[in-house]
Design goal:
Strand content: 35-45%
Structural class: alpha+beta
Number of helices: 2
Strand order of the largest sheet: 1-2-3-4-5
Shape: globular
């Protein structure tokens, strides 16, 4: 499986996992000049920006650990852009991470709600 297909596959698994836990899908792969958000979900009144990460091996840490400070800043800027163009500045929101670890036939899905928050909140 090539990298693009793998990304689509893992994002679809993450989306299904979140839907199974009561979230509604709003958008996938939101792109702007500032970056990309893998999934945008709705959890009640809360808009949820989701970063999906996959690692086959934990040799360099698990998938969630790869969401570093720079990636979080990029996600924050992209989410602010999304909120701005959709006129949702006052909408409650949070940033979740869904990490998928292990070989594809034995994936372990770990959902981390409110994995980080925007500075000032």
């Amino acid at each position: 499986m090539d990298r693009i297909a793998l990304g689509k596959y893992t994002e679809s698994l993450a989306c299904k996992h979140l839907q199974d836990h009561g979230l509604s899908h709003r958008e996938s792969n939101y792109r702007c000049k500032l970056g990309e958000i893998d999934l945008i979900m709705q959890d009640g009144q809360t808009l949820v920006f989701v970063e999906v990460r996959y690692r086959e091996s934990a040799g360099y840490g698990n998938a969630a650990e790869s969401v570093d400070h720079f990636k979080r800043q990029k996600l924050l800027r992209c989410a602010n852009h999304y909120l701005s163009i959709n006129h949702q500045h006052r909408s409650p929101c949070r940033f979740d991470v869904v990490s998928l670890n292990g070989p594809l036939n034995q994936l372990v899905v770990d959902w981390i709600p409110a994995a980080f928050i925007e500075p000032g909140n």
